[in-house]
Amino acid sequence: MAHDMNYRNLGLEIAHITESAAVAASRWVGRGDKNAGDGSAVDAMRKSFNTLDIDGVVMIGEGEKDDAPMLFKGERLGTGRGPAMDVAIDPVEGTSLLAKGRPNSIATISLAPQGTMFDPGPAFYMQKLAVQHEARDVVDLDMPIPDLLRKVARALGKDIRELTVFVLEKPRHENISREIFQAGARVQSHTDGDVAGALLAVTPESGVDLMLGTGGTPEGVLAATAVKVLGGQILGRLDPQSDEERKSVLDAGMDISRVYTVDDLVTSDDVYFAATGITQGFLPGVKIEGHRITTTSVLMRGRNKTVRYIEAHHAFGKFGKELPVS
User: Each residue of 104-136: pLDDT tens digit?
Assistant: First the structure.
């Protein structure tokens, strides 16, 4: 019973960590400095982890790809007491969104038993497809886009014209977007936000039906914990974006032809996922009014397939005096 109680508390405690990161980052919303926002969130997240009773090792860190402040891969987190866990973190997912004051920047963490998260190694990029539960068994990463959209529409009980596809706004995706338009579906394009894109794709009420395109491999693993809890599917294949990355991936003995499923990316069902909105989006952003701070988070637990939305009201002093009061 005590062990299970520790596990139950763990979910709320990681939500507290994403809250602290989101609040720290929020002072940099719309100020044009993504590294400062990321650095504030990293510091807050690392400090909050100090009291968490896990023996955690960072499997999915951040900073390697964009030379930002880091919670580095292999860093140990937690008190060292409690369960041995793989940790995936992104203190600010969507640093450019944060810097420009755009929607859907979030602070996010996932946990899984040690040894159960896929190790991206030197693979920064992955071709990905994410869909909700009803369409999880009809999709294929190599299916022509018109066929894919028809199958997903049929599985969701929709007309293809009602489908909305999340696509990152990158030059490499121009052909994907064109094919989606020609098939009659809609595109919702975002400059950043791989994890948010997967979450939107697997959440029925989000207005997004699937996610397509090449994004971050670490973000794919992080999102896979949430996709698993929600019963959706995420398919991924390593997609190096430079000769240097391709050589590193092949030298590491990784298979660039293999298609990974959600169960390959995270092999355990006993996972936790938490995200807190920084800017307004599918999760409300941090609100600072007078001496009260309001955060909204989503917390998922794999063992019992629960999804909780938490609106929390914090006393201003809890986060220090460096925050703006208006």
Answer: 999 999 999 999 999 999 999 999 999 999 999
Eight-state DSSP code of residue 184: T
What separation, in Å, do the N-terminal and C-terminal C-alpha atoms of the chain show?
44
**If you compute the radius of gyration of the chain from its CA atoms, what whole number of angstroms results?**
19
| Alpha carbon of residue 68 to chain centroid | 17
305-316 as b/e, with b when 16 or more CB fall inside 10 Å? Answer: eeeeebeeebeb
Q: Which residue has the tokens 């590294």?
A: 35
Burial of 325 (0-12, 13-18, 19+ CB in 10 A): exposed
Coil/strand/helix, residue 262: helix
Residue 241 to residue 254: CA distance in whole angstroms: 15
Rounded to whole angstroms, the Cα distance separating 304 from 227 reads 14
Count of helix runs (H) and strand runs (E) in the chain: 9, 13
State pLDDT tens for residues 72-105: 888 899 999 999 999 999 999 999 999 999 999 9
Pairwise CA distance, residues 200 & 210, whole Å: 8
- DSSP secondary structure string for all residues of 93-113: E-HHHHHHT-S--EEEEEEEE
- How would you class 75 by CB atoms within 10 Å of its CB: exposed for 0-12, middle for 13-18, buried for 19 or more? middle
